[in-house]
Amino acid sequence: MPVTLEDVRHAAELLDGVVERTGLYHSRALEQLVGAPVWLKAENLQRAGSFKVRGAYVRMAKLSEEERARGVVAASAGNHAQGVAQAAKRLGIKARIYMPLGVALPKLAATRDHGAEVILHGDTVDQALAAAEEYAKSSGAVFVHPFDHSDIIAGQGTIGLEILEQYPDVETVIMGVGGGGLLAGTAVALKGRAAELGRTINVVGVQAENAAAYPPSLAADALVPLKRVRTIADGIAVGRPGQLPFQIIRELVDDVVTVSEDALARALVFLLERSKLVVEPAGAVGVAALLEGTLAAAGFEPSKTVVVLSGGNIDPLLMLKVIQRGLAAAGRYITVRMMLQDRPGELATISRVMAENDANVTRVDHTRIGGELSMGEVAITIDMETKGAAHSELVLQALREVGYEPLIIN
């Protein structure tokens, strides 16, 4: 293994007093859903808002004085950038961070606030990475990779040691996967300690289905890059697994599963409502897997589970969109389109039916123009809030009973 349990233990010593020992919170709602205890490891409450500072600090703390004098360079869409910037500030190292042009403004501002020089370059993280690597070659600055380095992996693995100290009886640990540094490091820690204790711990990674490079790579036993990555979980939107993490994950991790975009949105809303935690989509993928029943479908029995909430750095504008999508996925926010006769009283009838069935109308669009409309017909589109999928169906059935044919269009 390129990283050992002793490497992770040494990383934990370096991080003592530097990072937060984040809390482990019981989720009664998830326990009722899966039929076993579920705890949430809140790395979204870590310094800089994610686990990334762990690996970044370990990598940079082990640099020589000569390397520190040359400075460091990194590339990231947000979490790694903030982790490197914070670690550099603490260690007194000059940091230059490349970020893609479309980076969320809160992540950009936070990175600058930690004292790093930020260069906006390219439309994707891969383009920013290429620019950072080129700068490292031309300037002599030390390139701090977001996941493909043994010190980074060891630093992230300290989460595994904390989980076992906080919940010694844990049987399954779930977390998101992008390049694989967090999953690889945590697997080294958990599997290594489990072997010492003479017991078994399942380690499961979760990817967004539109950014899932690990399942095909593991199936082929080789790195298989994706041609396209598209997901709301920007923190794990990585098109190619890291070489070192892949070697570890291939050997130690029990499975890597995927979840839908709707499940990601539902998970974020679930954590807001039921756990009072602000978590970015990439940090919520483990909860999404439980909500969607993905682990059960993959053959895992209910067990004492910890889900790593890897980050909480979310742009408020993205949060608004994700919440809306999450409500829609849960059947609590629907858009309905209906055809009706262009005559007085039709809107009043629809309003009465919805009021009687306790649906809250938030928007109405009424038009007489459209290729699908016959003479004397109008189309009406209604956005409404309901109490869930069952209540939505009750409202739709009530509309059908008075002669309308509602069609859900979201």
From TrEMBL:
It catalyses: L-threonine = 2-oxobutanoate + NH4(+). It holds the Pfam family PALP. SUPFAM superfamilies: ACT-like, Tryptophan synthase beta subunit-like PLP-dependent enzymes. Residues 335-410 form the ACT domain. Its cofactor is pyridoxal 5'-phosphate. Signal peptide: none annotated. GO terms for biological process: isoleucine biosynthetic process; L-serine catabolic process; L-threonine catabolic process. Keywords: Lyase, Pyridoxal phosphate. One of its GO terms (molecular function) is threonine deaminase activity. InterPro entries: ACT-like_dom_sf, ACT_dom, ACT_ThrD-II-like, Ser/Thr_Dehydratase, Thr_deHydtase_catblc, TrpB-like_PALP, TrpB-like_PALP_sf. Its EC number is 4.3.1.19. Belongs to the serine/threonine dehydratase family. Catalyzes the anaerobic formation of alpha-ketobutyrate and ammonia from threonine in a two-step reaction. The first step involved a dehydration of threonine and a production of enamine intermediates (aminocrotonate), which tautomerizes to its imine form (iminobutyrate). Both intermediates are unstable and short-lived. The second step is the nonenzymatic hydrolysis of the enamine/imine intermediates to form 2-ketobutyrate and free ammonia. In the low water environment of the cell, the second step is accelerated by RidA. This is threonine ammonia-lyase. It comes from Galactobacter valiniphilus.
